[in-house]
Design brief:
Elements: H1 2-62, H2 72-80, H3 83-90, H4 94-108, H5 120-133, H6 137-144, H7 148-168
Amino acid sequence: MQRLAHVKAIIVQGIRRRRMLSQTIIVCNAYRNRRLTVLLCLVGLLLLSRHQNNATERVHRRSCRRLIRNCGWWDLVWNSYSEERFKKTFRVSKNTFNFILSRIRHDSERDTVNEDPISPECRLGICLYRLGRGDYYYTIAEMARLGVPTVHAIVTQVCAIAFLNFVRS
């Protein structure tokens, strides 16, 4: 009997030990899960704040980022193109170009604070190139080293200025 009681006590003690071990494992897993959840939340907040900081930095840096303008494109065209090539490229002669330029020059000059303005000659050249050849804005932008929206704005503004000037006369 005593032996049976001793075996029973050993079995009960083993059961208790296994329950305690199981409960300890459950508590450790719950603690680890809470720590992981907190860690993931902190990492998420860190990434979110980093993304917001990068977004504000990008906006801040953007005002200083500009394409280097190819000021030599128009000089190259004006000085090196023959009369025939000029007329083939822009669909007008140099004399007609100068006449149109004299009519719209005062309206097409721009005052800018941050950068060098695009000359009225270059603006008219870009507009006539677009109208005469029908190239994409992107192609003209790459050629003149300007942005696509800038080329679009130049073509639109020069067409509007020319239309208004020739309607008035």
